Amino acid sequence: AQSVTQLDSQVPVFEEAPVELRCNYSSSVSVYLFWYVQYPNQGLQLLLKYLSGSTLVKGINGFEAEFNKSQTSFHLRKPSVHISDTAEYFCAVSEDTGGFKTIFGAGTRLFVKA
Amino acid sequence: DGGITQSPKYLFRKEGQNVTLSCEQNLNHDAMYWYRQDPGQGLRLIYYSQIVNDFQKGDIAEGYSVSREKKESFPLTVTSAQKNPTAFYLCASSPPDRGSAGELFFGEGSRLTVL
């Protein structure tokens, strides 16, 4: 069965510092990988996705993620964060079972300090 | 602009009452989903529908019901049988092309509080 583990529930970081949010998954079939961001009291929006091809994926707002099949990981990185990056970040895995079913990790709250 | 509209944004309910959360999309997506969000637990799938007049239970369907009479609409009813309904509810949809691989488009959410 699919599962998604986000290894850190909270990540505090100073403005302009680099950040990495970690995500590991398990699945018995090929999967598609996503990172979504959620600002307070809002829905989620897509940051980036890995479907196939290059394992380094670039997304919006300067974020990028690297798919590592052997380690079943999909960590999210940003070289220099801003105060406005403070939000909750969700890693998600989608399996093709005829239709698509998406499983989410528990989320990582990124808190950027001045 | 295309998108997903959820209403109401905030809702208070007394114990024993059923409530219905609205979700409307004008993205022409076939698949629609309802997720429940609780602090520290991520999003959990309640129900999903891949086509009009058809829907499937997700991982936590007990105490909830849905209908899909129109492509644009996928309302969720939280019944009195749901033991702990206080949560943030998110509606999402997904494009029909398989190349999207299940990418989800979300509404702004509805926060339900049981008094």
Keywords for this structure?
heterodimer; A: 114 residues; 4-stranded antiparallel β-sheet; B: 115 residues; mainly beta; 11 strands
How many individual helices of chain A?
Answer: 0
The 3D shape of chain B can be described as: globular
> Quick one: biggest sheet of chain A?
6 strands, mixed
Q: How many extended strands of chain A? A: 12
- The radius of gyration computed from the alpha-carbon positions of chain B, rounded to a whole number of angstroms, is 13 Å
Tell me the number of helical segments of chain B per DSSP (H or I, 4 or more residues long): 0
Low-confidence stretches of chain A: none
Mean pLDDT of chain A: 92
Give the biggest sheet of chain B.
Answer: 7 strands, mixed
What structural category characterises the helix and strand content of chain A? mainly beta
Characterize the structure shown.
Chain A is built from no helices and 12 strands. Chain A is mainly beta and 114 residues long. The mean pLDDT of chain A is 92. Chain B is an all-beta fold. Chain B has no helices and 11 strands. Chain B has strands at 4-7, 10-13, 19-25, 31-37, 43-51, 54-57, 64-66, 76-78, 87-94, 105-106, 110-114. The mean pLDDT of chain B is 93. The chains are: A mainly beta (114), B mainly beta (115). The interface between A and B is medium-sized, with 27 and 27 residues.
